[in-house]
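Page 42, continued from yesterday. The earlier attempt failed because a stray header line got pasted into the input along with the sequence. Redoing it now with the clean sequence only.
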Amino acid sequence: MRERAEIDQTAIDERAAQHRDESRYRALQRVQRRIWQMRNPGDIDHVWQTIVDSLRELEIPFDHCDINVVRQPGTEGTADRETMTDAGLGIVDQFWRAGQTVYRRNLEEEDIYRERARIEAQFGRAVRAVIDVPFSHGTLALNSAQIDPFTPWHIEILEDFARALSDSFRRMEDLKQLEERNRELEREIAERERREKRQQALHRVREQIWRMRRSEEIADVLERVGAGLRAMEVPFVFCGVNIVDIGGQLRASVYSMNETGEWTQRETVGTPTILSIWREGKVDYRRDIHRDDPYGERVRFRTIRSLLDVPFSHGTLAVSSRRPGAFSDEDVDILQELAEALSEGFQRMDDLGALEERNRVLEKEVAERRQAELELYEAKEAAEAANRAKSTFLASMSHELRTPLNAILGFSQLMQRDQGLMVGQRENLAIIARNGEHLLAMINDVLEISRIEAGPAMLQEDAFDLHGLLEELEELFRPRAHERELLLLCERAEDLPRYVRTDGGKLRQVLINLLSNALRFTEKGGVTLRIEHGGGRLRFEVEDTGIGIAPEELGTLFDPFVQTARGPSIQGGTGLGLAISQQFARALGGRIGVRSRVGEGSVFSFEIPIAEATGEEVQEPAP
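This time it went through. Structure tokens are written below.
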């Protein structure tokens, strides 16, 4: 019987424990449901009442229950449901920070926090036991007039409720953060929509500005500016574009539009306000001209209180309002962006105008150039025709002159062979022969220059004896030098090749012409022919100690039919020798240069490429 009684008692105890667990579970569920309905700290009273009811249902022996909510780090002070006095704030904060349940079983025996007197004074009754169970945002606190009334089971229930409170407060914080984030997103979306709306309005204004070709189209631009300002909610009554024209006198073209979209235009002379703001180049915001009127505008604008002018490259963009301080910093930014767009548009319009003017100038220049080219072509054709006629005439006349001249020279040579001639007769025949030879040389020069003008001199390369050519030139000119009592020298480089390949005939003619001129214009001293060799090239210099050439004559020295100032007085000639020599030198691959000082002499030099040859290649002894 005794064993059966023990079994029955065990069953009763188990049923009681099960009942307690079910009651504990139902109470916790009820508290959690109420807690999860929290949306803000003000809902804590409903949670508190649910906890109190659940504790009484579970027969937990308490006299008073509090939910002490501690403010989070970064805020000041501690919040409680409404029962805690300032003196208890520090203790609650201490328990909350410790994060562990603090059970004071008997305040009569041990009051380590010195709280008994304060609590009894607060509630007006005896308090023997106090327990604080921390949660995420404070403590769940119970007190009782009994000594050590709370069992471990009671404490477990309180800790369950505390955990539910922690979950709820964290959820409430998450909801709060989510709501704040939603508000931020709404603000961001609104700001983004506002920016997009602003950018679209600015884009439309810019499009209209960039379509502007003439200042007369400013009305269309002003209409778009006004529409853009309204779209961007700039609170203007009048907006205007003031175009400054500095030409002769200071004036401005004022284009204005009211809030209904009607616009007017007027010309003003001597507008100091617009010109002053434009010259200053800074935003000028008169927030209330009834209080501060720097330009004396109140008389003109009786109903206007605030004005804003933003300068751009060609004037100012202006808005006005009947309200003082009507325009925000954002409005100023919008006006500045529009002013920048106006600057770009007007500068582009100026550039287009300048480009069109430049195109007109270019078209005129092209037409004039074409006309000049046509005239030049016609003149060139006429000159070439005249030159061909001249060459034909010279060639014909030269042949006609050379035929009788050859007969004269031939008869004079025959007559000179007559042994019975007297001395005077021989001298006269010598004069005839000498002048005839000179005339024949001039005729040959005329024929040669005619051939050159008909086409460039052609190079006819052959191998020849260079040493033999130089010796021939010495033999040819030594009698002339001796006759004029001049010294004739020929200085050759030691490595000068004997046989070379180039146009020997043209080289011979160039050297003959240069030596002839040197002897002709030298009265005392001498003439030196100098030849150097190196790098597959020959350098020739003809130096004399003659009368020299004036600097101003050097530029035309190699032109056909040109002679120096003293040339004709010394000895006649055609003025073709140097021109022919320069053409031949270029055909040979060189160019004749000259250095000269008046009264000291001249040096004519040129350098030509050559190829060395062998004796077997030489057909004739000398060219």
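Notes: The two ends are 165 Å apart (CA to CA).
Reminder to self: strip header lines before submitting.
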